[in-house]
Amino acid sequence: MTETLQRTRIGGRLMRISRVAVTLSVVVLYVMANTSTAWAYVGPGAGLGILGTLLAVIIATLASVFGLILWLVRMIKRRKRDRLGKTGKPIKDSESEQ
After folding, report:
1. What is the dihedral of CA 7, 12, 13, 14, to 10 degrees?
2. Residue partners of 12: CB distance under 8 A and separation at least 6
3. Over the stretch 55-70, which tens digit does the pLDDT of each residue have?
4. Structure pTM?
5. Is the CB of residue 52 less than 8 Å from the CB of residue 59?
6. How far apart are CA 85 and CA 94, in angstroms?
7. Which alpha helices (DSSP H) does 1-98 contain, by range?
8. pLDDT tens across 2-30, in order?
9. Could you tell me if 55 and 62 are in contact, meaning their C-beta atoms sit under 8 angstroms apart?
10. CB 91, CB 85: distance < 8 Å
């Protein structure tokens, strides 16, 4: 019975968090949709700074995705190598116990 109550509390907490997130998202979208045009000048220094920052974020994201994929490939190769053993043939059960 206590497990059911704990699950209900956890589920209730998650429901409240998701309601807050949805409400906050709706408010942010409403505020962004109802803004007027800002006629502002962005100089070349600020523009290049924004482009540099954007480029750095894109490169960092791509590098992290590439690193994750490379790590997964290495892990799969290592597991395959460990299963096959040094000879490249599958290890029999009797050989693996020795």
Report:
1. 90
2. none
3. 999 999 999 999 999 9
4. 0.46
5. no
6. 13
7. 2-33, 44-84, 93-97
8. 444 444 555 555 555 678 888 899 999 99
9. no
10. yes
